[in-house]
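Hi R.,

As promised on Friday, here is the backbone we talked about, encoded as structure tokens. Could you run it through your design pipeline when you get a chance and send me back a sequence?
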């Protein structure tokens, strides 16, 4: 493309990037054995592939409700995965993203209507939540 395209004219992405367990990779406390390809994490409210084991819904903090199109979220509607559209400064391990980026919670609870720029560094809380 030689000329830019107004982002308001673009449709939603037609793909669902997701992660899955590598073969023989232990997932810790959640599984008695390595789940292999049957364990997946998708973006909020994107359903799993045919390879996913539906018995994993509801484990731990998962509050997925496939009958109502609710997937890969906790009780507060927080997603298990994010798709950030550019190079992003992620918080340290074990730091909840809502502490590093205070507007994230508002963005999620508003179903993406509010705080659309929650992920930019100008909106971050740099009080000991990021790796140096």
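Update: got your reply. Pasting your designed sequence below so it's all in one thread:
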């Amino acid at each position: 493309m030689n000329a830019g395209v107004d982002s308001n004219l673009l449709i939603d992405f037609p793909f669902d990037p997701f992660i899955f367990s590598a073969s023989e990779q232990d997932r810790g406390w959640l599984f008695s054995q390595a789940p292999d390809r049957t364990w997946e994490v998708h973006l909020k409210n994107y359903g799993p592939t045919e390879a996913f084991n539906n018995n994993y819904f509801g484990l731990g903090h998962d509050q997925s409700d496939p009958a109502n199109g609710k997937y890969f979220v906790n009780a507060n509607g927080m997603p298990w995965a994010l798709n950030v559209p550019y190079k992003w400064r992620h918080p340290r391990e074990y730091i909840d993203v809502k502490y590093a980026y205070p507007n994230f919670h508002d963005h999620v609870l508003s179903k993406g209507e509010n705080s659309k720029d929650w992920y930019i560094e100008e909106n971050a809380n740099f009080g000991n939540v990021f790796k140096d």
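One thing I noticed while checking it: The chain has a mean pLDDT of 82.

Thanks again,
M.
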